[in-house]
Amino acid sequence: MANVINFILPFLPELLLAFFASQLLVFGVVKKERTDLVRWIAIGLLVVFALAGLFVGVPGTTAFNGALINDDFSYIAKAIIGLAAAAALLFSESYLKSERLDQYEFSVLVLYAVLGMSIMVSSNSLLSLYIGIEMQSLALYVLAAFNRDSLRASEAGLKYFVLGALSSGLLLYGISMVYGFTGSLTFDTIGAVVSSGDVSPGVIAGMVFMLCGLGFKISAAPFHMWTPDVYEGSPTPVTGFFASAPKFAAMALIARVLMDPFMGIQDSWQQVIIVLSVASMIVGVFGALMQTNIKRLMAYSSIANMGYALVALSAGTVAGVNGMLIFMSIYLITSIGLFACILQMRIRDGMVEQISDVAGLSTTQPRLALMFTVLLFSLMGMPPLLGFFGKISAFYPAIDAGLTWLVVVALIASVVGAFYYLRIIKTIWFEEQDRQFVKPATALSVLSGVSTLILVAVLFLPFISAPVKTAFGAAAASLF
Predict the structure, then answer these.
(1) Mean pLDDT across the chain
(2) Given its phi and psi angles, is residue 65 left (phi above 0), alpha (psi -120 to 50 degrees) or beta?
(3) Higher pLDDT, 59 or 415
(4) Is the pTM of this model over 0.90?
(5) What confidence tier does 234 reach under pLDDT thresholds 50, 70, 90?
(6) CA distance linking residue 71 with residue 67, whole number of Å
(7) How far is it, in rounded angstroms, from Cα 424 to Cα 372?
(8) Distance between CA 268 and CA 262 in Å, rounded?
(9) What is the pLDDT of residues 303-342, one digit of tens each?
């Protein structure tokens, strides 16, 4: 009995998440009219899941013959993923009800996606890594096409599925090469072989294929083709979810793969990460300059921001991983706030889609316009807002690692990127209104509350963030 308890306890939050997700699926089939209850139970589960590891987790424990591992890094990542998913469910309610898409399956799919992300960040084997990615991806494919009556949503889901299958093929091919040349799927054994100094070119080739497959999951250029179409075609709450938790989980997985089994060939993977970073920044900022659709612009913005996160990761140090965690957490907070604001912008024709649709927002809804503007300035990296400290955290480790030229490229990209954020701000405050905005039903809506809390975090978290930095530092160090 004691052995069973010791086996279950380390991953009890994941087991409970899987159990209750299945139970909610059955409950939803029987009680289809209780969608709100399913949503609130799912939100509660995600909050408990997020906090469980931080307060009762035991670092250093493993399960399933070492395929999964718990450490400070995985606990921090799970906490951020769980809270981000809970926020996504919160701000999806009003949209789903207004568009007549409020179905219990939405909450269940989010739970299964989070379960996959949890397996990803706790992976200690190439097999569990692939299982986690596929579990997350299968749920996200359905979420992208959740609006079955929309041709754009169906197209987005199909494109995401087809290109996701391609990335899975690349990832599996890389895994098979690494397994063939090292004789193992576990990170510890692969790391020992790689650190021995006698590394076969096949291992390096396999690692490159794996990074290409993982690059798709964070929409790093040149594996970004799906991002603009999926962001535009998916329901807006789904787009907001795509921009937060899945990106963080994939970036955390890349950090674990690079710093654990492949740390011994840093010179090889560092070149790949730098190429992905530079390509993402260039494609992201120049692609966003040409967009007129807000969600497509946010897609290219996310591509550029993944490039900034890879700048930190390219350092290959504890400080680099720490900088990546801080930057991605701040990007996640800001993205959720921006999409919470976008979901409050409704015109008589429907949801705001084009940048020109926000003209005159400052006149009809000045509070919302102010919140949206501050969040855009934060995403731009304007001091003293939270986004500024995120970019500082990402760029300093690269300078310490001797990659000053890469930081210069990132700074130039940030300056170019400021133009498309400023264009939205100009439209909000200085262009005349040509569309009639529909005010929210209540001033104290969930969306308004979420965006207000995030605004407070963006303004004041830089001054009280010392404990957070300490926790992230310990999480980064646990990978080494």
Answers:
(1) 85
(2) left
(3) 415
(4) yes
(5) confident
(6) 13
(7) 10
(8) 9
(9) 999 999 999 999 989 999 999 999 998 898 888 888 888 8
The number of helices, as runs of H, and strands, as runs of E, in the chain is: 21, 5
Residue 75: phi, psi to the nearest 5? -65, -45
Give the span between the Cα atoms of 194 and 15, in whole angstroms: 33
H or E stretch covering 478 = helix 466-478
Q: 392-421 in b/e burial notation, b at 16+ Cβ within 10 A?
A: ebbbbbbeebebeebbebbeebbebbbebb
Distance CA 472, CA 479 (A): 11
Residue 337 to residue 376: CA distance in whole angstroms: 10
In angstroms, the Cα distances linking 8 to 3, 4, 186, 227 are: 9, 6, 21, 38
Strand partners, 123: 68
Nearest to 118 by CA among 313, 23, 257, 250: 250
Burial class (CB in 10 A: 0-12, 13-18, 19+), 347: middle
Q: Which two tokens stand for residue 347?
A: 């015109």
Tokens, residue 253: 């997985």
Q: Are 47 and 87 in contact (CB under 8 A)?
A: no
DSSP characters over 362-379:
HHH-HHHHHHHHHHHHHH
* Interior/surface letters 119-155, b for 16+ CB within 10 angstroms, e for the rest: bbbbbbbbebbbbbbbbbbbbbbbbbbbbeebeebbb
CA contacts within 13 A on the Cβ side of 107: 34
CA 101 and chain centroid, separation: 24
Q: Beta 350-351 vs 68-69: how paired, if at all?
A: unpaired
From CA 310, how far away is CA 326, in angstroms rounded?
12
Written as one letter, the residue type at 276 is L
Alpha-carbon distance values, 142 to 168, 174, 192, 242, 267 (Å): 17, 26, 39, 12, 39
